[in-house]
Amino acid sequence: MGSMSAEPKTLQVELEEVGARHWWASLLATLASQSGNTYMRFVGVVNGRPRYLSSTFPVPRMWGTVPPQEAWAPGMTASLAELRRAIENDGWQQIGRGQQPWSLTYQRH
After folding, report:
1. Which of 11, 54, 80, 101 could pair with 106 in a Cys bridge, judged by C-beta atoms 3.0 to 4.6 Å apart?
2. pLDDT exceeds 70 at position 35
């Protein structure tokens, strides 16, 4: 039988609020942004652990459950492109995409 390392690894691109993993960072981010913006970023997650991080971009706080769009989340498209470049430069192959532009799945052997 092959070793475990022969299993292809899967990477999922996710969107997260900066500081969401740490309540105090989220609090600081909220306090620092009087304009009511929250900062989001894209994350390349492998085995539940963030391996790749994009730069952040501001999203208006009242966006709620509406997916962000470049029109009112300036820098979002560039952040995603930057993350995808880093992932693909490391040899990951895109194998799937979901409904959102960032819902991407990559695999690497």
Report:
1. 11
2. no
Does residue 33 register a pLDDT over 90? no
User: Cα–Cα distance between 4 and 25 in angstroms, integer?
Assistant: 36
Q: Tell me the residue range of the domain where 27 lies.
A: 4-108
> For residue 30, what are its two tokens?
């909220």
Domain count, the chain: 1
Averaged confidence pLDDT in the chain: 82
DSSP-assigned letters across all residues of the chain: ---GGGSPEEEEEEEEETTTTSHHHHHHHHHH-TTSEEEEEEEEEETTEEEEEPPPEEEEGGGTTSPP-TTTSTTHHHHHHHHHHHHHHTT-EEEEE-SSTT-EEEEE-
Is 0.90 topped by the overall pTM? Answer: no
Residues 6+ apart with CB under 8 A from 15: 40, 41, 42, 43, 68, 100, 102
